[in-house]
Design goal:
The protein is an alpha+beta fold. Among the domains are: 2-53, no CATH class; 60-73 and 80-186, Tetrahydropterin Synthase, Chain A, CATH 3.30.479; 290-345. The chain contains eight helices and twelve strands. A hairpin with a 5-residue loop joins strand 10 and strand 11 (101-112). Helix 3 (125-141) packs across helix 5 (153-168) and helix 7 packs antiparallel against helix 8 (328-344). The longest helix has 102 residues, at 188-289.
Length: 345
């Protein structure tokens, strides 16, 4: 179709189809004219003396049958990709700060922002970017020792991205991301494995020793706490026993005091009742002795009572002699005197 259009235009015009995600550089007599965007581009050919499509050297990263990465040069390339490019570069020999040799390969994500700068400011921007990545890897990874290198991938990736982005900015290329894909230790791998094994054993022994030490400390603390608790228990038991004895003593003293009070009250009541009984008896005796006839009968009663006692002694038959009290007449006289006193009173 393009050939027919060129035929009808008698070679004055030339048509080119540009695919989406790609651009082409239009030159006029060997100088940059414009950038052909996706779609149909019309060139003022003028029988080969006008506008033409520029052709450049742009290499391509490829993999062989064994998976090895290599850079394949390409000449007379008309199409410049504007999509995100992902290039996996071959492994590079890196010497670390502690003189260990390792092999590192990286993956770079980039895109062409200005196709004019990408083809005119640098020859073969893909191959040049590869050389730049190699140089940046050696420069950045050489700052680290081997142990630091293995644990600092994120920091190295960030530093490489910044460094490559600044270096490729004049080329119209934007580096979005850099990833270290693999770190091959070579002969240092076995040495490092032995070191890690030794370090693991050392940490294990330290952990076991710390665990044993911690167990002994906890056991000692437990024994100490048990002793303290036992002493506190004995102390509290002693205090409780002393308090119980104190309360018991107080209760006994209160009980004895109450018993003494009750006994004293009972004795006082008994004495009072005794005095009342004596007073009543004295009053009755006074009333009885106030009457002469009653007094005479009482004297007769006493005489008869005494005579009965003498008779009972005689009835026993154990003695042939009876002794009468000398003061018998005195008793009768005392009763008579008391009666006379009561009558006078």
């Amino acid at each position: 179709m393009g050939s027919l259009l060129e035929l009808f235009s008698l070679g004055i015009l030339q048509f080119a189809v540009v695919r989406q995600g790609e651009v082409r550089i239009i030159e006029r007599r060997g100088r940059f004219a414009r950038v052909a965007q996706p779609g149909v581009a019309i060139l003022l050919a003028l029988w080969g003396y006008g506008e033409t499509i520029g052709k450049f050297r742009i290499s391509e990263v490829r993999h062989d049958n064994t998976g090895k990465v290599y850079l394949a040069p390409r000449n007379n390339v008309e199409v410049i990709p504007m999509r995100m490019q992902v290039d996996d570069y071959p492994k590079e020999s890196i010497i670390t700060r502690d003189n260990a040799t390792v092999y590192i390969d990286a993956v770079v994500y980039y895109r062409v922002m200005d196709p004019r700068q990408a083809v005119y400011e640098v020859r073969d921007f893909v191959g040049s970017l590869q050389k730049l990545v190699q140089s940046a890897l050696r420069d950045e990874c050489g700052k680290y020792e081997l142990d630091e290198l293995l644990v600092s991938r994120d920091r190295i990736n960030s530093a490489l991205r910044i460094q490559l982005d600044e270096a490729t900015d004049p080329w119209g290329i934007k580096v979005d991301r850099v990833e270290i894909k693999d770190i091959d230790l070579g002969e240092f791998g076995q040495i490092l494995a032995e070191q890690r094994a030794a370090e693991t054993r050392r940490r294990t022994e330290i952990t076991q020793a710390e665990g044993h030490k911690r167990a002994q400390i906890l056991r000692a603390e437990g024994d100490q706490e048990a002793a303290v608790l036992s002493a506190k228990g004995r102390r509290e038991a002693t205090i409780l026993q002393a308090e119980a004895e104190k309360e018991a003593s107080i209760l006994r003293a209160q009980a004895e005091k109450q018993a003494a009070i009750l006994a004293a009250e009972a004795e006082a009541v008994g004495q009072l009742k005794l005095r009342e009984a004596e007073a009543r008896g004295f009053a009755m005796l006074q009333g009885a002795l106030a009457n002469p006839a009653t007094t005479e009968r009482m004297l007769r009663f006493l005489e008869l009572q005494q005579a009965g006692a003498v008779s009972s002694k005689l009835a026993e038959g154990k003695a042939t002699k009876i002794f009468l009290p000398n003061k018998l007449d005195g008793v009768f006289g005392m009763v008579a005197g008391a009666a006379e006193a009561l009558r006078e009173g």
